[in-house]
Amino acid sequence: MPIIISNNVILSDDEVEISAVRAQGAGGQNVNKVATAIHLRFNIISSSLPYFYKERLLAKSDGRITADGVVVIKAQQYRSQLKNREDAVTRLVELIQSVTVTLKRRRPTRPGRASKEKRLQGKNNRSRVKKMRGKVHEE
User: Fold this and answer.
1) Which domains, from first to last, does the chain contain?
2) What residues contact residue 44 under an 8 Å CB cut-off, 6+ apart?
């Protein structure tokens, strides 16, 4: 079944290598007998992704992307191999979609006159409170 990234981008099954391995950690006899964890490998460079997707994915500093440009995802959250497979594919799609979002450029702003006056008024009030804590001089 093809993996849908966006309306225009679809990955075929042969671009993604999925293999079942034994899961780590606690799980009783099931963990020793059944290979429920999934290793997903996706080669960015040889994929059919558009050029700017590849460029941004390779530039992304993500621990799941190797120096060779291969995405490695291990899914072992669920006890079912099918659920782990779906989880791994979902995480791959989210990783690829994360590079398509362009963040809005921040325009530096300056505080307005009212906010400056409010800040100074607050400082003034605090100063008066602290002065009132001093010793009382009787005449």
Assistant:
1) 3-98 (3.30.160.20)
2) 54, 57, 58, 65, 69, 70, 71
How does DSSP assign 85-137, residue by residue? Answer: HHHHHHHHHHHHHHTTPPPPPPPP----HHHHHHHHHHHHHHHHHHHHTS---
With 0-12 / 13-18 / 19 or more C-beta atoms within 10 angstroms meaning exposed / middle / buried, residue 9 is middle
The rounded percent of the chain whose pLDDT value lies above 70 is 89
Question: Each residue of 95-116: b (16+ CB within 10 Å) or e?
Answer: bbeebeeeeeeeeeeeeeeeee
Tens-place pLDDT, residues 73-85: 888 888 888 888 8
pTM to 2 decimal places: 0.67
- Mean pLDDT, range 38-51, rounded to an integer: 83
Distance CA 108, CA 111 (A): 10
